[in-house]
Each structure stands twice: as structure tokens, then as C-alpha cells.
Amino acid sequence: MDGLFTFLGLISSNHTFIILAHAVLVAIIIIAVVKVATSSLQIVPKGIQNIAETYLGGVINMGAEVIGEDLAKKYLPLVATIGIIVFFANVIGIIPGFESPTSDINFTLALALIVFVFYNVEGVRKNGALKYIQSFVHLGDMNPIAKFLMSVFMYPIEILSHLSRVVSLSFRLFGNIKGDDLFLAVILMLAPFIAPLAPFALLTFMAVLQAFIFMILTYVYLAGAVKIDEDH
Fold first, then answer.
1. Which residue of 82, 116, 172, 182 has the lowest C-beta tally within 10 Å?
2. Is pTM beyond 0.70 here?
3. Mean pLDDT score of the chain
4. Residues contacting 167, CB < 8 A, separation 6+
5. Tens-digit pLDDT profile for residues 50-108
6. Contact of 191 with 129, CB cutoff 8 Å
7. Are residues 93 and 173 in contact, defined by beta-carbon separation less than 8 angstroms?
């Protein structure tokens, strides 16, 4: 956030540099955590391995309710990776002197575009381009003329609806984290030395919640793209 002190701001005041540097820092942290979690795998998990396995199991269980267990496992690498990136990118901004990459619209837009492109590609790959596009509008047993007229009216709306998912995913995450950063800035100005613990707990909860929302919406969009026959 412009005007807020960050350690990396001592190197450069360019906001794009600060966001990119924090994004790289988040990636390094994630790689380090994964390395530690998988460095000495045990049958009975302990420590970080236990946390990692619990997280992956939770993501699968969450996806199983939306898309089925088999598909939840298939798309686990994407969804779990997005979840851990969003979580750490959110949480790092809670630490004074650091900034959340997710408080920048370009970062959240990139994540949203990855999800958008992936679920559409999967929809086309699984069902074929024509069938996938036809699934956008369900016209039922209408006469050909009425079906054509409704298609002309409904398809542009449905296409805009799909495109709006990019805006929804990116701006929801960006807006919430940006608001959290502003809230934290005010708290630190009011109590710069002993910031109350309650706001930090609330911000941590919001970081987890936003990661959960991003993951569940990714599963929902994937379900709508690859499970067309069941939807019908």
C-alpha cells in the first residue's frame, strides 16, 4: 500500500517492485515450507508434514462436496497451490514492514485469469468445444425459431457472465485484502508499539477465509465446466 512503511521500500519506492519482491518472498517461503514438510516423510506424520497432509485432505474433502472425490483429487494440485499462495500472500501483509501481494489488483487478476483459462480449457477438453459452448444456455424443448431467438439473446449474457468471474475473483480478493491493509495501517498508527492482538487475529481469520473462498470457487467453476451431463 502506497505510503505504508515496508522493509523492501528501503531499497526502492517503486510500488510495482515492492509487490513483485513480496510475491517472490512468498514463493520462497512456500518452497521452504514444502521442502521441510517433504524432507523426511514418515508413515505417522508429525510437525509440518502433519499440517501439510491435513491441509491437502481438507482441500480434497472440500472439493468432494462440489465436484466429486475423484475430480477433487485430479484438480488438487491447482486448487491446493492457489490456496497456499493466497494464504501466504494474505498473511505476510499482517506482519508490520511487509505488504500483501494480494493487495495489488494485478496479482489477484493473474490468479483469476489462471483459474478462468484452466477451467475453460478443461471444459473444452472434456466435452468438446461445441458441446461446452452449448452448455452455456439450456433452452429445453423449444421450437427451433424460439430457440434461435433465445440463443441470440442469452449467449452474449452468458459469455459476459463467464467473463465477470475474472472480475469477481480478482476484485473480491483484492478489495478484502486492501481493506485489511488499510485497517491494519490505522491500528498501527493508533497503537504503534503495542498493537492490540484482536485485530491481528481477525486479519488472520480473513486471510484464511479469502483463501478458502478462492479455492471453493475454483472447484465450483471446474464442476460447471467438466460435469455438463450431470448438470443437465
1. 182
2. yes
3. 86
4. 112
5. 999 999 999 999 999 999 999 999 999 999 999 999 999 999 988 888 999 999 999 99
6. no
7. no
DSSP state of 100: -
CA distances from 51 to 47, 54, 93, 182, 203 (A): 7, 5, 22, 31, 21
Long-range contacts from 205-211, C-beta under 8 angstroms, 24+ separation: 206/90, 206/176, 206/177, 206/180, 207/87, 207/90, 207/91, 207/94, 207/177, 207/180, 208/87, 210/86, 210/90, 210/102, 210/172, 210/173, 210/176, 210/177, 211/83, 211/84, 211/86, 211/87, 211/90
As a whole number, mean pLDDT of residues 161-168 equals 91
Question: Which tens digit of pLDDT belongs to each residue from 168-214?
Answer: 999 999 999 988 878 877 777 776 656 566 778 888 899 999 999 99
Distance CA 139, CA 130 (A): 15
Return the domain boundaries, the chain: 8-231
Helix (H) or strand (E) run with residue 217 in it: helix 197-226
C-alpha cell at 148: 434461435
- Give the three cell numbers for residue 60: 480434497
